């Protein structure tokens, strides 16, 4: 009799377990996550907090490199150790504790210091998707950052001390297709509709509709109708200024109401059409960041080693050269209308997007073939996704941490002009690292050395600032505060930073959402944070 | 005590540095000493409300910030979809009480820490229970529960000659997350903005108009809502009310929604979307919960120890694009429904035409009331009179006719006090009617 009802898809345990995050990065993001390999150097409280927020959502595997033994102090701040494990390998205990939290994740450890691993095992660190380090001394940080920079492995460096936190991302080049912007304007192309859209829009005479049809016609049709009227009256020009748009809005507002006599409120769809005049009358343009990507050397000079992202960009570039616009997104926002009118419009947008994605896919395939790459280098679905998000593409090129440490001049004066700038904490942290290198303890680590250490640290910071030719003076109280910490790691501060750093790592792995560029300071005293580009 | 003094001193060495040393940014009343850590560990009593995404993190954070006397309330049991972030739970714990499993995990992991679980609703306790805590931390996904506990804490305040007795103030630290966004705030009831003062921060729930879902559906959501709101009650396929956690129920909705979408050519109905719409699912990840719980636990530590000045009083977090935070002072509302100590006046344009139904709608829809199912009573000629109450079936039937009567017909006068009870508040609120017309004809 009736056709068989559609069957519900079987849900796997995995998709049930990860349901709440799959709604944020999709099955394709999860797939990348499950194939990732993450390395953590030093299983401090901060280190294990970061790993915890990566293990729960299901990275593929992790490796902890840590030569330290578990101490009483570790137990007091690090949740992922056992209280009876004092004296055992910190890497081993942390690995075991962390693995308990997700049976889908594999984990192993190296009970050696990162220096030792670097000097004894060639190409150890470059096999990871991301390397994370906490509490890393300068003498290891600098060579490791150089090595990972050369190997193009993203490197995330974090530090938690007292109420202060620091995250630094080192990425040579990172590309994002799905940036998931919080808000975006609809892509409707009313000023330059393609033929099938134009023919459809022109076929509806809004002024002649009866009252019922009038309330069911989509806002887009109304806007196009009055835009055409406006152009007829204004020598073919579209409204640009506020006054001109006001005239158009008035035309829509004063549109003849079918039912004469009684005072009527303007229908919802006409109100919507008036609102759309704010966002939909700008000529389609190519955002600066996307134009910069199309003009990038990586886009112009492809090689056999070019990743799919750049091959698709090159195809997009050819498309833009020809069409002078980006491919259409293909989605239509909801608007008051009857089902048929809305779905007809929606299908027009959808089909146009499919058509354009097909053109770009063919171009990309041709480019890949010309480069001598295999047929499956680029898939059609990949290109569809790429075209849908063409206006949000991001390329982030970071800087090498070693350069920042070895550079003789570091131009921070722009930031340091504001005496409340959190950049001063960056300066103090650099001083702190140098202090540790010189004296092999944290400033203020011992109760009777706090005051002398304040003087020593101030001296070091003064030297650093003059090395960088910065004339600003640091407020003493901040140096005092950092010496008060004496290297203490406050668990709740590490928890905050751990969450932040973990999400940055997820961004790097999934290539979704825009990562930090490139240094972050968190001041838990004032609950403020700031981002700096170093 | 199993810990030797030396190991104790070492273990808590991190906290001792900030508690036993002076700092330039500490609270003016802060006096560094070893007694502060003693206070945290022996006398300070903390209540954590919610043992979910934020709650698990909060319990861990508080335990490692030295707090040993912690209570946790949660009425929920563990579900498979919790395991991507609620890290104190395992597959084998599915179906057990969140509060109980979380408490036993922490007690086992952090020696000396004593978490007491309460597998029940917050409404199951009265003021004598809540009064015992020094600080209350909320990791809730329910706005109603947040408003209820806020109302409870305000009801515990003592005023003497209109002056607030500071001893009666129990600080509340509240966190919330949604996807990659979150917020944390400190509420000092009676002193700083309370949850009700800033009720307009919560966006109203999206409701699709009935005529759209019935007659002109355009989105897959419209199809799903149609099946949920119209088809389910009509066909009653399993002879029971809809349960979003029952896979059979979701499958039925999915299949019918696909059929309806096909009929209208609407693309995009997926099983995941059906679940999301039916259960009002909010996306959630481990990282955001870690961040917000960490901020909240830091504030609890600051309030308990005065080692620095607490957040004043609202922090917003978002790591969709880089990492963004913003801190500001949310302001008290001078006529706050709950914490302002001023009588609530509701202005009525014309009590001859305004029906009780409209008054009920106003209490539900106005952004500064946002009540769920307000019950209204009043006193007329010295006698209690129930005007309307929807929560108890027999009373609802008895008072239903009042909805279509005007305020005047019900005998309500200018200046009349209406007592309003709702799930959003533990106490009854008094609203005074103020008529803006003079020609009120009372019968
Ligand atoms: Zn208030």
UniProtKB/TrEMBL annotation, chain A:
**Where, by residue number, does the polypeptide cross the bilayer?**
none
State the source organism's domain of life: Eukaryota
GO terms of molecular function:
NEDD8 activating enzyme activity
Domain THIF-type NAD/FAD binding fold intervals: 18-529
Could you tell me which pathway this protein works in? Answer: Protein modification; protein neddylation
Q: Which UniProt keywords apply?
A: Ubl conjugation pathway
Any Pfam family = ThiF
Q: What InterPro entries does its record include?
A: APP-BP1, ThiF/MoeB/HesA, ThiF_NAD_FAD-bd, Ubiquitin-activating_enz
Q: Entry's CDD domains?
A: APPBP1_RUB
Question: Is Transmembrane given among the entry's keywords?
Answer: no
Tell me which GO cellular component terms the UniProt record holds: cytoplasm
Q: Please, one GO biological process term?
A: protein neddylation
The family annotation for this protein states: Belongs to the ubiquitin-activating E1 family. ULA1 subfamily.
Q: Which PANTHER family match?
A: NEDD8-ACTIVATING ENZYME E1 REGULATORY SUBUNIT, UBIQUITIN-ACTIVATING ENZYME E1
Question: What is the recorded name of this protein?
Answer: NEDD8-activating enzyme E1 regulatory subunit
Automatic annotation (TrEMBL), chain B:
The cellular component terms of Gene Ontology attached to this UniProt record, alphabetical and capped at eight, are:
cytoplasm; nucleus; protein-containing complex
Keyword annotations of the record: ATP-binding, Ligase, Nucleotide-binding, Ubl conjugation pathway
An example of a GO molecular function for this protein is: ATP binding
| InterPro entries, per database record | E2-binding, ThiF/MoeB/HesA, ThiF_NAD_FAD-bd, Ub_act_enz_dom_a_sf, Uba3_N, Ubiquitin-activating_enz, UBQ-activ_enz_E1_Cys_AS
User: Start and end of every E2 binding domain?
Assistant: 348-436
Where does the record place the catalytic residues?
211
Q: What does the entry give for GO biological process?
A: protein neddylation
Give the EC number(s) listed in the UniProt record. Answer: 6.2.1.64
The answer to whether the entry has keyword Hydrolase is: no
Q: In which pathway does it act?
A: Protein modification; protein neddylation
Recorded catalytic reaction(s): these are: ATP + [NEDD8 protein] + [E1 NEDD8-activating enzyme]-L-cysteine = AMP + diphosphate + [E1 NEDD8-activating enzyme]-S-[NEDD8 protein]-yl-L-cysteine
Q: Does the keyword Glycosyltransferase apply?
A: no
- Report which superkingdom the organism of origin falls in: Eukaryota
Q: Which Pfam families match?
A: E2_bind (PF08825), ThiF (PF00899)
Role this protein plays: Catalytic subunit of the dimeric E1 enzyme, which activates NEDD8.
State the family named in the UniProt similarity comment for this chain.
Belongs to the ubiquitin-activating E1 family. UBA3 subfamily.
The protein's name? NEDD8-activating enzyme E1 catalytic subunit
Say which species the protein is native to: Psylliodes chrysocephalus
